Amino acid sequence: MSEREIVTHSGEETIARGRELASQIKPPLLILITGELGAGKTTLAKGIISGLGAAREEDITSPTFTLVHSFCGNVKVFHVDLYRISDAHDFHTLGLEDLFDEPAVVLIEWPDRMRLRTDWPVLRIRLEHAGEDVRKIHVAEVVSGIPSAHPAVKPGKSAG
Ligand code: ADP
Ligand code: MG
User: How far is the CA of 42 from the centre of ligand 2 (A)?
Assistant: First the structure.
Protein backbone atom coordinates (compact mmCIF):
# COMPACT_ATOMS: atom_id res chain seq x y z
CA MET A 1 0.00 0.00 0.00
CA SER A 2 1.56 3.30 -1.00
CA GLU A 3 1.53 6.58 0.88
CA ARG A 4 -1.44 8.84 0.23
CA GLU A 5 -3.70 11.55 1.60
CA ILE A 6 -7.47 11.24 1.52
CA VAL A 7 -9.93 14.08 2.26
CA THR A 8 -13.44 13.23 3.45
CA HIS A 9 -16.46 15.46 4.08
CA SER A 10 -18.62 13.31 6.38
CA GLY A 11 -18.40 10.40 8.75
CA GLU A 12 -20.10 8.23 6.12
CA GLU A 13 -17.39 9.09 3.59
CA THR A 14 -14.68 8.18 6.11
CA ILE A 15 -16.39 4.83 6.70
CA ALA A 16 -16.54 4.24 2.95
CA ARG A 17 -12.82 5.01 2.63
CA GLY A 18 -12.11 2.66 5.51
CA ARG A 19 -13.93 -0.09 3.65
CA GLU A 20 -11.78 0.58 0.60
CA LEU A 21 -8.64 0.35 2.73
CA ALA A 22 -9.88 -2.94 4.12
CA SER A 23 -9.91 -4.44 0.65
CA GLN A 24 -6.14 -3.92 0.49
CA ILE A 25 -5.41 -5.33 3.94
CA LYS A 26 -4.48 -8.82 4.99
CA PRO A 27 -3.41 -10.23 8.36
CA PRO A 28 -1.05 -10.02 10.09
CA LEU A 29 -1.18 -6.25 10.22
CA LEU A 30 -0.85 -3.68 12.99
CA ILE A 31 -2.70 -0.46 12.19
CA LEU A 32 -1.76 2.58 14.28
CA ILE A 33 -4.39 5.31 14.09
CA THR A 34 -3.48 8.73 15.48
CA GLY A 35 -5.33 12.04 15.63
CA GLU A 36 -6.95 14.20 18.31
CA LEU A 37 -10.28 13.41 19.98
CA GLY A 38 -13.09 13.50 17.43
CA ALA A 39 -10.69 13.32 14.49
CA GLY A 40 -12.50 10.21 13.24
CA LYS A 41 -10.28 7.33 14.36
CA THR A 42 -13.17 5.15 15.54
CA THR A 43 -15.23 6.14 12.50
CA LEU A 44 -12.44 4.99 10.20
CA ALA A 45 -12.05 1.80 12.25
CA LYS A 46 -15.76 1.13 11.66
CA GLY A 47 -15.10 1.19 7.93
CA ILE A 48 -12.00 -0.96 8.10
CA ILE A 49 -13.42 -3.60 10.47
CA SER A 50 -16.77 -3.88 8.68
CA GLY A 51 -14.93 -3.89 5.35
CA LEU A 52 -12.89 -6.86 6.56
CA GLY A 53 -16.18 -8.66 7.17
CA ALA A 54 -15.39 -9.05 10.89
CA ALA A 55 -18.42 -7.16 12.24
CA ARG A 56 -21.38 -5.03 11.27
CA GLU A 57 -20.83 -1.30 11.26
CA GLU A 58 -23.30 -0.72 14.11
CA ASP A 59 -21.48 -3.24 16.30
CA ILE A 60 -18.21 -1.35 16.09
CA THR A 61 -18.01 1.19 18.91
CA SER A 62 -15.22 2.91 20.76
CA PRO A 63 -13.25 0.59 23.07
CA THR A 64 -12.28 3.56 25.25
CA PHE A 65 -13.42 1.97 28.51
CA THR A 66 -12.82 -1.69 27.73
CA LEU A 67 -9.43 -1.23 26.04
CA VAL A 68 -9.98 -4.04 23.52
CA HIS A 69 -12.87 -5.21 21.35
CA SER A 70 -12.38 -8.55 19.59
CA PHE A 71 -14.08 -9.55 16.37
CA CYS A 72 -13.92 -12.91 14.73
CA GLY A 73 -15.13 -13.14 11.16
CA ASN A 74 -13.12 -14.39 8.19
CA VAL A 75 -10.37 -12.33 9.71
CA LYS A 76 -9.60 -11.94 13.39
CA VAL A 77 -9.65 -8.28 14.37
CA PHE A 78 -8.75 -6.49 17.61
CA HIS A 79 -9.77 -2.86 18.08
CA VAL A 80 -7.79 -1.20 20.86
CA ASP A 81 -8.08 2.29 22.37
CA LEU A 82 -5.28 3.37 24.70
CA TYR A 83 -6.64 6.85 25.42
CA ARG A 84 -7.08 6.08 29.13
CA ILE A 85 -3.62 4.59 29.55
CA SER A 86 -1.57 7.32 31.15
CA ASP A 87 1.91 5.84 31.56
CA ALA A 88 4.08 4.21 28.97
CA HIS A 89 3.04 0.58 29.28
CA ASP A 90 3.88 -2.16 26.83
CA PHE A 91 1.97 -5.14 25.45
CA HIS A 92 3.12 -7.27 28.36
CA THR A 93 2.08 -5.00 31.24
CA LEU A 94 -1.31 -4.40 29.61
CA GLY A 95 -1.82 -8.10 28.88
CA LEU A 96 -2.12 -7.44 25.17
CA GLU A 97 0.56 -9.89 24.00
CA ASP A 98 -2.08 -12.50 23.22
CA LEU A 99 -3.42 -10.32 20.44
CA PHE A 100 -0.29 -11.17 18.49
CA ASP A 101 -0.45 -14.94 18.97
CA GLU A 102 -1.95 -15.61 15.56
CA PRO A 103 -2.26 -13.55 12.39
CA ALA A 104 -4.86 -10.85 12.95
CA VAL A 105 -5.55 -7.24 12.14
CA VAL A 106 -4.86 -5.18 15.26
CA LEU A 107 -6.07 -1.56 15.15
CA ILE A 108 -4.80 0.75 17.87
CA GLU A 109 -6.16 4.23 18.60
CA TRP A 110 -3.79 6.43 20.66
CA PRO A 111 -0.81 4.10 20.00
CA ASP A 112 1.62 6.72 21.35
CA ARG A 113 0.45 5.81 24.86
CA MET A 114 2.29 2.50 24.56
CA ARG A 115 5.80 1.23 23.96
CA LEU A 116 5.42 -0.87 20.85
CA ARG A 117 7.58 -3.57 19.40
CA THR A 118 6.49 -5.97 16.69
CA ASP A 119 7.69 -8.01 13.74
CA TRP A 120 4.33 -7.56 12.04
CA PRO A 121 3.82 -5.20 9.13
CA VAL A 122 2.71 -1.79 10.38
CA LEU A 123 0.34 0.70 8.75
CA ARG A 124 0.25 4.21 10.20
CA ILE A 125 -2.83 6.36 9.64
CA ARG A 126 -3.12 9.95 10.88
CA LEU A 127 -6.40 11.88 10.89
CA GLU A 128 -6.66 15.64 11.06
CA HIS A 129 -9.57 18.05 11.47
CA ALA A 130 -9.74 20.26 8.40
CA GLY A 131 -13.09 22.01 8.95
CA GLU A 132 -16.32 21.03 10.67
CA ASP A 133 -16.98 17.79 8.79
CA VAL A 134 -13.79 17.73 6.78
CA ARG A 135 -10.99 15.35 7.71
CA LYS A 136 -7.59 14.73 6.18
CA ILE A 137 -6.57 11.10 6.39
CA HIS A 138 -2.90 10.47 5.88
CA VAL A 139 -2.19 6.84 5.09
CA ALA A 140 1.50 5.90 5.23
CA GLU A 141 3.16 3.04 3.43
CA VAL A 142 3.13 -0.32 5.15
CA VAL A 143 6.51 -0.86 6.82
CA SER A 144 7.82 -4.07 8.32
CA GLY A 145 7.86 -4.06 12.09
CA ILE A 146 8.77 -1.74 14.93
CA PRO A 147 12.23 -2.86 16.01
CA SER A 148 12.71 -1.53 19.51
CA ALA A 149 10.47 -0.65 22.41
CA HIS A 150 13.20 1.45 23.91
CA PRO A 151 14.94 3.42 21.19
CA ALA A 152 18.21 4.90 22.35
CA VAL A 153 17.59 8.59 22.73
CA LYS A 154 20.59 10.84 22.90
CA PRO A 155 20.08 13.96 24.95
CA GLY A 156 20.35 16.83 22.51
CA LYS A 157 22.10 20.10 23.14
CA SER A 158 19.62 22.94 23.20
CA ALA A 159 20.44 25.67 20.76
CA GLY A 160 21.48 29.04 22.11
P1 ADP B 1 -12.05 9.63 17.46
O2 ADP B 1 -12.13 8.14 17.54
O3 ADP B 1 -10.88 10.12 16.65
O4 ADP B 1 -12.09 10.30 18.80
P5 ADP B 1 -14.71 9.44 16.37
O6 ADP B 1 -14.61 8.67 15.12
O7 ADP B 1 -15.23 8.77 17.59
O8 ADP B 1 -13.31 10.15 16.66
O9 ADP B 1 -15.65 10.72 16.15
C10 ADP B 1 -15.59 11.51 15.01
C11 ADP B 1 -16.83 12.39 15.01
O12 ADP B 1 -16.75 13.34 13.96
C13 ADP B 1 -18.10 11.57 14.75
O14 ADP B 1 -19.14 12.11 15.50
C15 ADP B 1 -18.32 11.76 13.26
O16 ADP B 1 -19.67 11.63 12.89
C17 ADP B 1 -17.85 13.19 13.07
N18 ADP B 1 -17.39 13.48 11.69
C19 ADP B 1 -17.78 14.53 10.96
N20 ADP B 1 -17.18 14.55 9.77
C21 ADP B 1 -16.37 13.46 9.75
C22 ADP B 1 -15.46 12.94 8.78
N23 ADP B 1 -15.25 13.54 7.60
N24 ADP B 1 -14.80 11.80 9.10
C25 ADP B 1 -14.98 11.20 10.29
N26 ADP B 1 -15.82 11.64 11.24
C27 ADP B 1 -16.50 12.77 10.98
MG1 MG C 1 -12.00 6.80 19.14
Answer: 4
